[in-house]
UniProtKB/TrEMBL annotation:
<feature type="active site" description="Nucleophile">
    <location>
        <position position="411"/>
    </location>
</feature>
<feature type="active site">
    <location>
        <position position="411"/>
    </location>
</feature>
<comment type="similarity">
    <text>Belongs to the class I-like SAM-binding methyltransferase superfamily. RNA M5U methyltransferase family.</text>
</comment>
<dbReference type="GO" id="GO:0070041">
    <property type="term" value="F:rRNA (uridine-C5-)-methyltransferase activity"/>
</dbReference>
<dbReference type="GO" id="GO:0070475">
    <property type="term" value="P:rRNA base methylation"/>
</dbReference>
<keyword id="KW-0949">S-adenosyl-L-methionine</keyword>
<feature type="domain" description="TRAM">
    <location>
        <begin position="2"/>
        <end position="60"/>
    </location>
</feature>
<dbReference type="InterPro" id="IPR002792">
    <property type="entry name" value="TRAM_dom"/>
</dbReference>
<feature type="binding site">
    <location>
        <position position="383"/>
    </location>
    <ligand>
        <name>S-adenosyl-L-methionine</name>
    </ligand>
</feature>
<dbReference type="InterPro" id="IPR030390">
    <property type="entry name" value="MeTrfase_TrmA_AS"/>
</dbReference>
<protein>
    <submittedName>
        <fullName>23S rRNA (Uracil-5-)-methyltransferase RumA</fullName>
    </submittedName>
</protein>
<dbReference type="InterPro" id="IPR012340">
    <property type="entry name" value="NA-bd_OB-fold"/>
</dbReference>
<feature type="binding site">
    <location>
        <position position="316"/>
    </location>
    <ligand>
        <name>S-adenosyl-L-methionine</name>
    </ligand>
</feature>
<dbReference type="Pfam" id="PF05958">
    <property type="entry name" value="tRNA_U5-meth_tr"/>
</dbReference>
<dbReference type="InterPro" id="IPR010280">
    <property type="entry name" value="U5_MeTrfase_fam"/>
</dbReference>
<dbReference type="InterPro" id="IPR029063">
    <property type="entry name" value="SAM-dependent_MTases_sf"/>
</dbReference>
<dbReference type="Pfam" id="PF01938">
    <property type="entry name" value="TRAM"/>
</dbReference>
């Protein structure tokens, strides 16, 4: 049956995809329905049509899932941050199990992989220790919030229920002060306006917040004074929780948040997170797991898998969170990190924790493995971004050093499936996969996978 834009049809939802969109089929033709849950019957309007699929918007629920719940966020339907608040948490975990199984078995072709149940998160609300707030001038108005789903239109945001409550507290005060000022917001179309973003990071164990103003150029004297006055007022209002404030200047027209120049306005420029006897320092721009309690579980899993190894190569190391756990079990670790501020935190963290069996290298993993890494490694641990490992990294692992074991930590089942297939061509078999829910209220899922020769 041919579907045209605007057509109204009734669909039965059979499954969901990695974007938490319901999937229905009409005469073999796929229709994606954002916001629909498995087992629901919905009346929809077709809003997008492609050669092999359509996208539809729910008009009415004819049969609702028993797992459907009321979202907590008042801007949930528009915001691009979460996509599963309309599902009960037990159902979210079930969906994530099916997503990781689909990626590993169907895409990765691992027919006999041992996939453990998803480990639920300790916290399902208020867990996230990082917020990137967009400041934009759009349609004649200044807006503060998150991007709408699939666009750069900013959805005004007063609070976010998945954020650490301390971040919400600081942001509420910051928002009021900034909107009462006449500081200009960034206009993407014209490339004008001062404030681009606010980044807020929190330490769960130390109850501290760092704030960074991301601005498009050097502020003039009046603007600098306003930024300073707002920040100092904020410090008085939310003390002792605000640990420090920084200004980062990013004049580029691209989407990358950070510019090359950062200055401290006042206070500390790092946070400290504690994992038992390990203290980890990280800066506001460093990669650090956003769900700290769940990250601690993940580090323990990785360290347990690697505990019989003597020589470890760790790629995409960040500030050394997992490195510290690996170093406690192994003779020596070579840790590679590309982002220089994170690399500097990595070095500092090893020194401050008295860990002296780690060699840290700064550079892109795909470049470092060609020129700066040699010798024998029992195991390689990789924790790449969502895009997965560079092909040169996989080639180096499979053909050059050929360790007996590889631990792949993934936040994207699709790239995990892709990369594990390549490693399989080099003789590695997937022994087990342990998914963890690091991102409640979203369809994202983390996995720790062990591959062996």
């Amino acid at each position: 049956m041919k579907q045209n834009l605007g057509d109204e049809i009734i669909l039965n939802i059979e499954s969901v995809d990695s974007k938490a969109r319901g999937i229905a089929r009409v005469d073999g033709y796929v229709v994606f329905v954002p916001g629909a849950l498995i087992g629901e019957t919905v009346t929809v309007n077709i809003v997008e049509r492609k050669k092999h699929y359509s996208v539809a918007k729910i008009k009415s629920l004819l049969k609702a899932s028993p797992y459907r719940v009321q979202p907590r966020c008042e801007v949930y339907e528009a915001c691009g941050g979460c996509n599963m608040q309309h599902a009960s948490y037990d159902h979210q975990v079930k969906v994530k199990s099916s997503l990781i199984e689909d990626a590993i078995i169907r895409i990765g072709k691992w027919k006999e992989a041992d996939i453990a149940p998803v480990i639920p998160s300790f916290l399902v609300w208020g867990y996230r220790n990082k917020a990137i707030i967009q400041a934009r001038y759009q349609k004649g108005k200044r807006k503060l919030g998150y991007f709408a789903r699939g666009t750069h239109d900013v959805v005004n945001l007063k609070a976010c229920p998945i954020l650490d409550p301390l971040i919400n507290l600081v942001y509420a005060n910051l928002r009021n002060a900034v909107l009462q000022s006449d500081l200009s917001f960034y206009d993407e179309e014209r490339g004008e306006g001062l404030i681009r973003n606010f980044v807020l990071r929190s330490s769960f164990s130390m109850k501290k917040i760092l704030l960074a103003w991301i601005i498009s150029r050097e502020p003039d004297d009046r603007e600098y004074k306003m930024i300073s006055d707002i920040s100092n007022g904020l410090y008085k209002d939310v003390s002792p929780f605000l640990g420090g404030v920084q200004i980062n200047i990013n004049p580029s027209k691209g989407n990358f948040i950070w510019g090359s120049k950062t200055q401290s306005l006042f206070g500390e420029d790092v946070l400290v997170e504690r994992f038992e006897n390990i203290k980890l320092r990280f800066g506001v721009s460093d990669f650090f797991q956003v769900n700290v309690l769940q990250a601690f579980r993940m580090f323990e899993i990785v360290a347990e898998l690697a505990k019989d190894s003597k020589h470890v190569l760790e790629l995409y190391s960040g500030v050394g969170s997992m490195t510290a756990f690996l170093a406690s079990f192994c003779n020596d670790v070579v840790a590679v990190e590309e982002w220089r501020p994170a690399y500097e935190s990595l070095v500092s963290n090893m020194t401050n924790n008295g860990i002296n069996n780690v060699t840290a290298i700064c550079g892109k993993a795909e470049d470092v493995v060609k020129t700066k890494v040699s010798g024998h490694f029992d195991i390689v641990v990789v924790d790449p971004p969502r895009t997965g490992c560079h092909k040169d990294v996989l080639n180096f692992i499979g053909r050059v050093i050929s360790p007996k074991r590889v631990i792949y930590v993934s936040c994207n089942p699709a790239t995990l499936a892709r990369d594990s297939k390549i490693l399989n061509e080099y003789g590695y078999n997937m022994e087990n996969a342990m998914p963890l829910d690091m991102f409640p209220q979203t369809s994202h899922v983390e996995s720790v996978v062990l591959l062996e020769k």
